[in-house]
Design brief:
Low-confidence stretches: 1-18
Helix content: 10-25%
Radius of gyration: 28 Å
Largest sheet: 8 strands, mixed
Strand order of the largest sheet: 38-39-42-40-44-45-46-47
Length: about 800
């Protein structure tokens, strides 16, 4: 009977695979139930740790929702009906839990079917504010955390496309970015063009990545002007004061003392080559009345930049307020013209200017590498992070802001991929301005949260790290059989924390822990969202490729499977290549066998319910040490990785090496096509949202910073399109019709499919309407899973 059913399904499959119109399909029940499981809630805690928010997340939208009008302008996708970004996730309900009393109640008074986002705490933690979106508007709401009663703060429609739609000024006072009251009607596209669209270059090199959703014509410019504009309004819920003319405000940040505003405003001329973050921008300081105090920068159109991962703008950038001061502006200026190829003693300078902004700016520090960020503590301490992306290195140094110009003192210097020696991320606390600053003791101790990578897998920890001696003491660490990490530090001095704990069979739940007293109180008891997975076997595999590099993969086996009784299984191997500058970094173990098994829409784990052994996160490192670039021998290393994984699963007696499929998304799709074109290791492949012709991304791709003209052989040999005539293994390609990812234009899949077809290969190309680089609509996701299942059952199982 079982053979008959399988044969019948193949007959159905052959009919569907013809050129007939195909409606959305649904996968088998075991996959459908997992895919449609309700998302687990997310949580957030007040600064004092006495109140917890429990937030229900939205599920998949329908294809009808995804098909609503959308404009794609200057790098953003917007909903023109309500002046918001489109495709954004949202919260559907909020519960408030008081930790001490364990009292839990819902936020009430909200509109039906409210789409909630941008939730923030008030300065005194007595209320929360959030945006509520409907089909026509985005508005600001506020809820009392003691009663849960919500009210609308203002009737003004907000523009949440650009910057922050609102900011707290005090406990009941807000700064709003509102749709201008005088905005009028949206521009209408002329039926007859007024003339051609023209771009021109005049001999100056302007290399740019293949960005999508750029402005394309004068009508797009009109739409950008209309939909991105807002006016700034101050309101306490009763009265409102408009403090600006309509403008395109990229960012409006109140100073910590709430006396000034840092305003960044875009203006013409626009570009058809780059996104709006590189449009001309005026950066100014205003009073809360709207009076301009200081012009900090007039940045022109930023189309032309040097090439390279560490290249940046030659104009002042990264404007922001010092978190530890009442009203002090800082910004970064390149000292090498933004060109990482220049040999200079310092690449960047961090500048500072304090109120009343009439003095000359002060250079706080100059950095030998590219400035990444600053973490403020107080007037005697800040931590500066520098990056050298080309060499994959990160440095953290301490400076004394009260002594500008002093050389920074190195605290951490490591490879960014050296996870074993990653000390972690510093714990922050709120200061008198309600800003997050570094927690530090007089002795120079800070607290660090880290992933805790180790040869046994990730074991997150909380440590005490001394920035003077560089000595690190682990105070707490996750213990088997759990994967547990510090979610929030409630009291750093007393070591009271909230942890998120999970295991293979238990979902994430939250616990209040006093690490000194060694006491633990459970805060949540969320049920298993996908009980169908209970009993699925999970194991972290460790093995070597033939050049000695250590590799890992996470193996999932069907419930009750016994290799001695049940024999070898078909295998689905899912992967994503990553580049390293060090073989030792590439060999480090990543992931944890104790993490909860939650299947999300893009996961390969669905097929463990269909009788497959699933190798997820199968490592595919590409190493280029010293002066050698990783991609110089990309294909050789890719094949070594695949061979090692196949040998491992076969030598275990689990996998049937004659029934193995390989798949991946984005760069994983690129990997899949290459493996099928250059080996006979696999029975089938699945490639989602990939790029296959590297000449269509000529100014670099992924971690390749050389252009096509600098390394034509690399571009040719790495492109599976170049070897489409060799690809005879069946490949399923799935792509969103509205893919906005740089480099993965839908035409990549279309042209690759045509090349395979023209050379007699076996391929199937599926375009998902309205979908982007990742997929969102319920119908699209279920159909994708159906396509993948049909392909695997036909060609592999």
């Amino acid at each position: 009977m079982r053979k008959f059913v399988l044969s019948l399904s193949l007959l159905i499959t052959f009919r569907v695979y013809g050129q007939e119109a195909l409606k959305y399909q649904t996968p088998p029940q075991s996959i459908l139930e997992l895919a449609m499981a309700t998302p687990s809630p997310t949580v957030d805690f007040s600064g004092k740790g006495d109140i917890m928010l429990i937030m229900d997340r939205s599920s998949y939208p329908t294809i009808e929702e995804l098909s609503q009008p959308e404009y794609r302008l200057a790098g953003s996708r917007i909903n023109p009906a309500n002046f918001s970004l489109s495709r954004s996730p949202y919260v559907t309900a909020i519960k408030i839990k008081q930790i001490a009393s364990k009292k839990e109640f819902a936020v009430t008074g909200l509109p039906a079917n409210a789409r909630i986002s941008n939730i923030t705490w008030s300065p005194a933690q007595k209320s929360i504010a959030f945006l509520v979106s409907d089909n026509n508007s985005v508005t600001l709401w506020q809820a009392d955390v003691n009663t849960g009663v919500a009210k609308q703060v203002s009737a003004r429609k907000l523009n949440s496309i650009e910057g922050n739609a609102y900011a707290w000024l005090d406990e009941n006072k807000f700064l709003l970015s509102a749709v201008p009251a005088t905005i009028g009607k949206a521009p209408l596209q002329p039926q007859t063009p007024e003339g051609p669209t023209v771009q021109q270059t005049s001999g100056k090199a302007a290399p740019a990545a293949t960005f999508q959703d750029m402005l394309k014509n004068p009508f797009d410019e009109q739409l950008f002007d209309y939909y991105f504009q807002s006016e700034l309004v101050i309101t306490d819920g009763n009265k409102e004061e408009v403090i600006s003319k309509p403008g395109i405000f990229a960012s409006v940040q109140p100073s910590p003392d709430k006396q000034y505003l840092l305003v960044e405003e875009r203006h013409r001329p626009y570009s058809y080559l780059v996104g709006e973050d590189r449009f001309p921008t005026n950066t100014e300081i205003w009073k809360l009345t709207g009076e301009k105090v200081k012009v900090l920068s007039n940045k022109p159109l930023d189309e032309s930049r040097p090439k390279g991962f560490d290249a940046t703008s030659n104009f002042p950038r990264r404007f922001g307020w010092r978190a530890d001061a009442a009203a002090t502006i800082t910004w970064v200026k390149a000292l090498d013209g933004g060109d990482p190829k220049k040999s200079v003693p310092f690449r960047d300078a961090l500048n500072s200017l304090e109120a009343p902004f009439s003095a000359e700016p002060v250079v706080l520090v100059q950095t030998p590498e590219r400035f990444a960020n600053v973490t403020w503590a107080n007037n005697q301490l800040a931590l500066i992070t520098e990056m050298n992306s080309s060499q994959q290195r990160v440095k953290v140094s301490k400076i004394d802001p009260s002594h500008p110009g002093q050389a920074p003192v190195l605290v951490i210097d490591r490879s960014e991929n050296d996870r074993y020696n990653d000390p972690g991320t510093p714990v922050l606390v709120k200061n008198q301005y309600n800003k997050s600053v570094l927690y530090v003791t007089p002795a120079g101790d800070i607290l660090m949260r880290a992933a805790g990578a180790s040869p046994e897998g990730d074991r997150p920890f909380l440590s005490r790290y001394n920035i003077n001696t560089k000595k690190q003491d682990i105070l707490w660490r996750s213990q088997a059989p759990y994967y547990e990490q510090v979610e929030d530090v409630i009291d750093p001095a007393k070591l009271v924390v909230v942890t998120a704990r999970e295991s293979v069979s238990s979902p994430v739940n939250y616990y209040l822990q006093d690490l000194k007293k060694k006491s633990t109180v459970a805060l949540t008891a969320f049920p298993h969202p996908q009980p169908q997975l209970l009993g699925v076997q999970k194991e972290l595999l460790k093995y070597k490729r033939k050049d000695g590099v250590d590799l890992t993969a996470m193996l999932y086996l069907p419930k009750g499977y016994d290799p001695k009784k049940d024999g070898r299984l078909p295998v689905l191997m899912w992967a994503y290549p990553r580049e390293y500058k060090s073989a030792s970094d590439a060999a480090q173990v990543r992931g944890s066998a104790y993490k909860f098994t939650r299947v999300t829409y893009g996961s390969p784990i669905f097929w463990v319910t269909r009788g497959f052994a699933v190798m997820d996160a199968t490592e595919m490192p590409i190493v280029g040490e010293g002066d050698k670039e990783p991609n110089d021998n990309f294909l050789d290393q890719l094949v070594m990785n695949a061979e090692a994984a196949i040998n491992k699963i076969s030598d275990m007696g689990v996998g049937d090496r004659n029934r193995i499929a390989v798949g991946g998304h984005s760069y994983g799709a690129f990997m899949t096509a290459n493996l099928l074109a250059h080996t006979n290791l696999f029975k089938a492949g699945i490639a989602r949202s990939g790029a296959y012709n590297r000449t269509l991304t000529p100014f670099g791709f992924q971690n390749e910073q050389r252009s096509y003209w600098q390394a034509p052989d690399v571009y040719y040999n790495m492109a599976p399109f170049s070897f489409a005539d060799k690809l005879k293994t069946p490949i399923l390609m799935i792509h969103g019709e509205a893919d906005n990812n740089s480099g993965t234009f839908p035409i990549q899949s279309e042209r690759f499919y045509n090349a395979i077809k023209g050379n007699g290969g076996t391929a199937r190309l599926v375009f998902l309407p309205q979908e982007s680089h990742g997929y969102a609509a319920k119908e699209s996701i279920l159909h994708m899973l159906w396509e993948m299942d049909e392909w695997l059952m036909k060609y592999v199982k």
